[in-house]
Amino acid sequence: RKEVEQDPGPFNVPEGATVAFNCTYSNSASQSFFWYRQDCRKEPKLLMSVYSSGNEDGRFTAQLNRASQYISLLIRDSKLSDSATYLCVVTFTGKLIFGQGTTLQVKP
Amino acid sequence: EAGVAQSPRYKIIEKRQSVAFWCNPISGHATLYWYQQILGQGPKLLIQFQNNGVVDDSQLPKDRFSAERLKGVDSTLKIQPAKLEDSAVYLCASSLASWGYEPNTGELFFGEGSRLTVL
Q1: With 80 as the cut, is the pLDDT of residue B105 above it?
Q2: A100–B42: do the CB atoms touch at under 8 Å?
């Protein structure tokens, strides 16, 4: 079983749609959780941290369920500029482990 | 502020040849990482340094890959001899956080990567 699993997609949605990505992790001792964004042929960049209480940053909402070892990212009112690959990241003993990423394509 | 610098950006070699990649992290960042990203996959950690010491190299194929970080600043990653399956983007990243520090902000700053094609 992979340490961090994501549905690779692609998710094709129209502008203005709401889209949700899921991620599961195998190590119950994982300590911290993040979403990164990677544009085509670019380097990954931190999008947001994920907390058990849930957190929101504008149109983006991240949630963590430690009991189910599940992380989610919700994007509301999708923009063309949201088209990218979204990488789920967990940490364990100081090591950051990336999922394979979920690709989002927002169409006009 | 200058970001993470990597070179070369692109490299094409034949199998069994050798190649080296160079990384200069953000000034003052203690931790440096080398990741391998194969097309369609997420980044996979190859090696993690804190200052000039190796913290984790459990996924580094040591029969062909080597890495060093002299004086705790610049780092080089070498592949010798290269195989077809080594075709990937090699990403260098650095972070301010020291290994094992929690809470971890999780923010790694990546360079643009070195794209390797092995023919």
Answers
A1: no
A2: yes
| Contact indicator for A102, A11 with CB cutoff of 8 Å | yes
pLDDT of residue B99: 55
DSSP B5-51: EEE-SEEEE-TT--EEEEEE--TT--EEEEEEE-TTS--EEEEEEET
Q: Least CB-CB distance to B41: which of A31, A32, A100?
A: A100
Whether residue A87 and residue B102 make contact (CB cut-off 8 A), yes or no, is: no
pLDDT in tens, B58-104: 999 999 999 999 888 999 999 999 999 999 999 999 988 765 544 45
Q: Is the pLDDT of residue A8 over 90?
A: no
Chain B nearest-CA distance from A15, in A, is 24
Query: B106 vs A42: CB contact, 8 Å cut-off?
Result: no
pLDDT band with cut points at 50, 70 and 90 for residue B19 = very high
C-alpha dist (Å) from residue B104 to A18, B56, B98, B99: 30, 17, 9, 9
Nearest chain B CA: its distance from A78 CA (Å): 23
Best of A95, A97, A102, A103 to mutate (most B CBs within 10 Å, chain B): A95
DSSP letter for each residue of B91-117: EEEEESSPTT-SS-----EE---EEEE
pLDDT by residue (tens digit) across A47-72? 999 988 889 999 999 999 999 999 99
d(CA A91, CA A37): 17
